[in-house]
């Protein structure tokens, strides 16, 4: 149950209250703590994190459905499930959805929920901007998908090369929806990045130096830095594309003398850091999971931190390896080829660190641990095929074949997605107060692992045999013989998709079984995994204000060191349990701070976010809508700027039931 | 302002070393928001000793650099792709653009004066200088509109050539930034008059100032690359 802070009755700490008590003198502040309003207008980073997760999960299922149709089409020769046109839309939107509407927002869900908890803060630096990010992302995602019902979705592939993106080759409004929708979700990412960077840099609890930060926060921090600088580049590209399609410019038209490679450069200067934006959050998650279930600290924490940062830097210098087949010239190709091999080094460092974390540990094979180990194995396979792309001559053979498709599904599904699932199982009791079923969890894990290898493994063979990606049919005539018969491996890949789908369905079943009305699942203990990092020092689920008193941090793995005492001598560490996790948390509760302020909810983030798709529809259909959307946006910004941080007592309806006591927090 | 930031930083550093148990009470009070940051730095914990708002504004401007970087690159790539008689050499009126650039740069000076007045708590001068800044900015935008109109009369439309598209996109984008800045300045004057700024007045003025200076600096780069360096 959420708690909304009311102005405290303590004159000593009251700062001069800004004057406006209502919005424009008409609306009162939203102060509901139950019902839909408590979610729609919330600024609580935890509720926002959960909403990010739910929305991303929805888009995951949409993207999965699209993938299923693609594989159904390719299951047999001369497939008839989809027309060529629908097939183009399907693979474009499958990739766009999975990248921009599933993995990125799901990572944002974890970052939103856990960064403030892991650095010991009450909330993010700008709670209302946080709500804005969420709603901009959701409205942007919905906007993008409305193109299905308005003449067809984008069909130029997720990197939308010219001239496929031009009006001649893509006459429907799909690409317009794509260019505008991604500008909108880009705003969400940018605002979120600024917010989370400030939170990490500025909101750390006393004693939490950068090198005592939990590793997930570190990796998420690197990701936000990448977003901060990558998003504007894609925004420029999308902006130019929008002018080309809606206002007659010719930025990418060869026939008008333009350089189509401009798009490729702009896209991949964003696109390659984007790869690390997708995978680094999962690296952070499993770097939390592996130590906990190995009963050892993370091996070489500084190396994991700095290799993450190194990936963040080097990730900017390898974009042209996506363009080896475009005729860059031998010098560029050589430089980017070497840089690409170099970036494998910090990635390899991470894999070694994880392996040595597990090495010699007392392993506890929970579902979260299985997913984390699954990531190491599957990602390494994808990483190795990645190194083969770094070799330019080899890459020239592989470009635009299923071999590439196999590679990036091993790194993105095997890397990013498995890590996110490890995070689900590891943090579920923290977020929802209940443990997911381990039995169903193991079904979930093994079906997903078997399914992904059946689906994506054969694609290596298909690709090396020459099956191009993005072809809507293949024919028996060219399918080849024996072991390398395309028909056989396409069928295996399509059957694998079914196994994979069942595996993901198991996760939904697991959530339903745990939380359905009348579920017999008991509340999880406060510290179910004997965890190490700070976020577990709050209750499960955490209170709205996170910590009863701001933690003072003395160590990396603060929570572990509060539970265990080192009785070893010198370099010989020997840890003895002094207090259980529940006792540590109870101790914090006993010493709760008075006067905890939380910012009040606000209408304006969701209103401002709603203005963006209106303007985007305006670009496609009618200029008047741009004006209308802009008017809404301006009104929302003024409402936002004039809104005081705290709700006035008069905003509360009904009046407070009783004078608040103790912590000055009113339970509503 | 900067003195207090520095001393805050030093104080925080010492406090952390001392494991400042007594400090915690002061520091955990707010969960921070733009509006929540009342500028009372003594009462706020911030790990870097820099306010959240200021850090956020710097990050935003860092991101904006890449945005303008992309647009400037596009222009530099396409600036020679035009028909013979409608290129930069035929169109630019350097004295005129120099004058309007001078106007914009002067507005940075008045912005600094506004920030300085706000720091001293001189509300009247703050509002005057903010208004002058907005007027100078408006003059610059008016000059840009005049310039665009002249080019258009000479035959350079948005879709005439790759050069024209990228030129109008880049400078138009900058013009929109200046216009947004003007709206912010006017709104700020209004909010200061009605005492509706939620947060510290001086810091809010400084935030708008940071944005304004950034837009000015971008113009210096655009003016140099687009107008002064011969194509």
Structural features, described:
The complex is a heterodimer of chains A (about 675) and B (about 230). Chain A is an all-alpha fold and about 675 residues long. Chain A is about 60% helix and about 0% strand. Chain A has a two-stranded antiparallel sheet. In chain A, a hairpin with an 8-residue loop joins β2 and β3 (about 575). The longest helix of chain A is centred in the N-terminal third of the chain and has 36 residues, at about 85-120. Chain A is globular. Chain A starts with a strand and ends with a strand. Chain B is mainly alpha-helical and about 230 residues long. Helices cover about 75% and strands about 0% of the residues of chain B. Chain B contains eight helices and no strands. Chain B has helices at about 1-15, 25, 50-80, 90, 95-120, 125-155, 160-195, 200-230. The interface between A and B is large, with 70 and 58 residues.
């Amino acid at each position: 149950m959420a708690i909304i802070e009311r102005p405290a009755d303590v004159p000593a700490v009251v700062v001069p209250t800004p004057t406006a008590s209502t919005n424009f003198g008409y609306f009162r502040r939203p102060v509901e703590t139950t019902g839909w309003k408590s979610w729609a207008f919330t600024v609580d980073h935890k509720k926002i994190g959960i909403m990010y997760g739910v929305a991303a999960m929805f888009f995951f299922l949409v993207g999965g459905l699209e993938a299923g149709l693609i594989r159904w089409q390719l299951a047999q020769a001369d497939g008839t499930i989809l027309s060529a046109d629908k097939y183009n839309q399907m693979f474009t939107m499958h990739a766009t959805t999975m990248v921009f509407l599933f993995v990125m927002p799901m990572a944002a869900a974890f970052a939103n929920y856990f960064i403030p908890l892991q650095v010991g803060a009450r909330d993010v630096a700008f709670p209302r901007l946080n709500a804005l990010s969420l709603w901009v992302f959701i409205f942007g995602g919905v906007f993008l998908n409305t193109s299905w019902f308005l003449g067809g979705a984008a069909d130029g592939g997720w990197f939308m090369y010219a001239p496929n993106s031009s009006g001649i080759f893509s006459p429907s409004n799909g690409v317009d929806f794509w260019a505008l929708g991604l500008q909108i979700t880009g705003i969400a990412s940018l605002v979120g990045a600024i917010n989370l960077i400030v939170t990490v840099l500025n909101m750390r609890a006393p004693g939490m130096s950068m090198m005592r930060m939990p590793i997930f926060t570190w990796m998420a921090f690197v990701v936000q830095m990448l977003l901060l600088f990558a998003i504007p580049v894609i925004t420029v590209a999308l902006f130019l594309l929008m002018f080309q399609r809606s206002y007659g410019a010719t930025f990418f038209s060869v026939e008008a003398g333009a350089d189509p490679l401009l798009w490729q450069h702009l896209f991949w200067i964003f696109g390659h850091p984007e790869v690390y934006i997708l995978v680094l959050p999962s690296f952070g998650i499993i770097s939390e999971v592996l130590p906990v279930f190995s009963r050892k600290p993370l091996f070489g924490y500084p190396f994991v931190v700095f290799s993450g940062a190194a990936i963040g830097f080097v990730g900017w210098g390898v974009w042209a390896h996506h363009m080896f087949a475009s005729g860059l010239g031998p010098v560029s190709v050589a430089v980017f080829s070497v840089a690409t091999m170099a970036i494998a080094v910090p990635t390899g460092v991470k894999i070694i660190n994880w392996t040595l974390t597990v090495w010699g540990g007392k392993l506890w094979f929970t579902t979260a641990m299985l997913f984390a180990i699954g990531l190491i194995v599957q990602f390494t396979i994808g990483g190795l095929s990645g190194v083969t792309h770094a070799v330019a001559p080899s890459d020239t053979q592989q470009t635009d074949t299923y071999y590439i498709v196999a590679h990036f599904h091993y790194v993105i599904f095997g890397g990013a997605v498995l890590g996110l699932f490890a995070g689900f199982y590891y943090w579920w009791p923290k977020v929802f107060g209940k443990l997911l079923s381990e039995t169903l969890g193991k079904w979930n894990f093994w079906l997903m692992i078997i399914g992904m290898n059946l689906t994506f493994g054969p694609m290596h063979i298909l690709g090396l045999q020459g099956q191009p990606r993005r072809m809507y049919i293949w024919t028996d005539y060219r399918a080849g013989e024996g072991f390398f018969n395309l028909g056989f491996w396409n069928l295996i890949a399509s059957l694998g998709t079914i196994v994979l789908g069942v595996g993901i369905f198991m996760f939904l079943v697991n959530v339903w079984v745990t939380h359905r009305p009348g579920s017999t699942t008991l509340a999880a203990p406060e510290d179910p995994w004997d965890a190490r990092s700070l976020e577990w020092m709050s209750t499960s689920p955490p209170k709205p204000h996170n910590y009863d008193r701001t933690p003072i941090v003395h160590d990396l793995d603060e929570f572990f060191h509060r539970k265990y005492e080192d009785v070893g001598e010198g370099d010989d560490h020997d840890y003895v349990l002094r207090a259980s996790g529940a006792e540590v948390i109870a101790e914090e509760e006993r010493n709760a701070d008075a006067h905890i302020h939380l910012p009040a909810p606000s209408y304006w983030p969701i209103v401002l976010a709603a203005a963006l798709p209106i303007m985007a529809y305006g670009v496609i259909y009618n200029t008047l809508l741009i004006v209308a959307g802009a008017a809404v946006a301006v009104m929302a910004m003024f409402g936002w700027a004039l809104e005081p941080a705290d709700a006035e007592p008069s905003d509360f309806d009904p009046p407070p039931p009783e004078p608040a006591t103790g912590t000055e927090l009113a339970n509503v | 302002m900067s003195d207090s930031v520095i001393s805050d930083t030093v104080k925080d550093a010492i406090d952390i070393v001392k494991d400042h148990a007594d400090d915690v009470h002061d520091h955990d009070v707010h969960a921070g928001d733009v509006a929540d940051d009342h500028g009372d730095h003594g009462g706020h914990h911030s790990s870097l000793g820099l306010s959240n708002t200021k850090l956020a504004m710097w990050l935003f401007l860092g991101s904006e650099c890449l945005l303008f970087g992309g647009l400037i690159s596009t222009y530099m790539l396409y600036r020679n792709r035009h028909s013979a008689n409608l290129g930069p050499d035929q169109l630019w009126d350097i004295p005129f653009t120099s004058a309007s650039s001078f106007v914009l740069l002067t507005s940075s000076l008045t912005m600094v004066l506004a920030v300085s007045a706000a720091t001293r708590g001189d509300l009247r001068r703050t509002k005057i200088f903010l208004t002058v800044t907005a007027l100078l900015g408006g003059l610059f935008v008016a000059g840009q509109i005049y310039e665009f109109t002249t080019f258009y009369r000479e035959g350079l439309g948005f879709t005439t050539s790759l050069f024209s598209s990228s030129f109008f996109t880049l400078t138009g984008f900058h013009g929109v930034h200046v216009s947004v800045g003007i709206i912010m300045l006017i709104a700020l004057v209004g909010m200061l008059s009605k005492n509706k700024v939620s947060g510290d007045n001086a810091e809010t003025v400084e935030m708008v100032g940071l944005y304004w200076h950034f837009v000015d600096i971008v113009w210096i780069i655009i003016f140099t690359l687009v107008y002064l360096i011969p194509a």
